[in-house]
Amino acid sequence: MRYLSIGLIVVISLFFSACGSSDSKAPVQEKSKLVAYVTDNENDQVDVIDVEKMELIKTLPTGHADAHTPDMVSEENGNVKLYISNRHEEYVDVVESKTNEITKTIPLLFCPRSMNTNTQTHLTEVASTDKSAAAVIDTRTDEVVATVGDANLTVGTKCGHPYWLDDKDFVFIDRDNRKIYTYKIEQNSSNPSVWNTQELNVLATPSPVHHILTPNVNGKRNYNATYFYAVAEGDSTHFPAILKLEFNKNSGMNIVETLDLNTTGNSIDEMGGHHLDFLKDGKTLYAGSKEGHLFVVDYSTTPMHIVKVIHAGKGAGHSIEMKHQNKAVVINHTDKFITLVDTATHTKIKDIVVSQLPDSDVGQVQIQAHTQYRFSDDEKYFYMALTEEGKLIKVNLETGAVISADVGGKLTMSAFCQVQE
Prior knowledge:
The chain has one helix and 32 strands. It has one helix at residues 2-19; strands spanning 32-40, 45-50, 55-61, 67-76, 79-86, 91-96, 101-107, 112-118, 123-128, 131-138, 143-154, 163-164, 169-174, 179-187, 195-204, 209-213, 227-232, 241-248, 252-260, 273-278, 284-289, 293-298, 305-311, 316-321, 327-332, 337-342, 347-353, 374-375, 381-386, 391-396, 402-406, 411-420. A four-stranded antiparallel β-sheet has the order 3-2-1-32, with no helix packed on it. A four-stranded antiparallel β-sheet has the order 4-5-6-7, with no helix packed on it.
């Protein structure tokens, strides 16, 4: 019995060593959940929504006019930091997911529109709604380190979306004056708290440019690209167009090719370019136009050419492709349905009604909100916001069924973040 007792003690000891006792220092796996931060510019607040439960967690009043864009600028140690633009006041509010509170307000020399963050340098460029200017914020300190353009020059048209070309160079788009400015920014070698900017060039565009993009490489942002693509929105004398731009680190941006989107028979006045989105095939981009057409463009050839035109809905804008299937959802900003597209054949699969607004609102009001959007992990469901109806919705892409979190107000944009519980 003595030997049996000793053996039993050894076994029990080994068991508790393997499993860990109550005093074990083994790391505990943190739970996380998907949260949507949605801006409501009617009530000037950020709605925090549990996406799995489709329930409102909290509202964060900004105290500033026209809370509009929630942009995720960093994600460290389970804490997500977002910048909230207030389009009618000269402030950016900082929200942190660990507290779901506004932790800081950053003053600017203009009213902010949208942002673009360089994830390698932690610098965020902020575009303006009312001035011919842009600012750069260091997201590690939440301090403005540079302002470019002319913060005293008022514009009547919001600036285009900001964009980093690489770790040191970025563009500022003045839509009102139809110009793209390319800047370089570097830290002062003798004083790292000082940042120096240099204007590389100013490029005239045929019509106002909405935004600039370059294709991802292996699913990640490419900060070593030479060629970029822009959407020229069109005007009374120009059709919307895709511009192919070449970037030189010493001399800036140059237009090397222009593809007019004018094959539909619609008049110039009916059309209007919005966003382009690259497909994962590495050769195709989708570009929507406000009258309801989606242009399928092969950008891998010289010259670029239109492969096909798909009939979508009014305000056709963003296209969001699935990672694991050859399908994409087209957001029709001023229509009642989204459009599901087969990206292998570039054909419409079906339209899915998501809004209950009357038909008289089609083409007249913002029905479907702007970015971001999100697929469920199994790509069966699609999450988006409805502006006029004040809803975050979950759309079953197979059945067309819609589940909503009715939060009220007017929802403009959203950011979907995986945060610790």
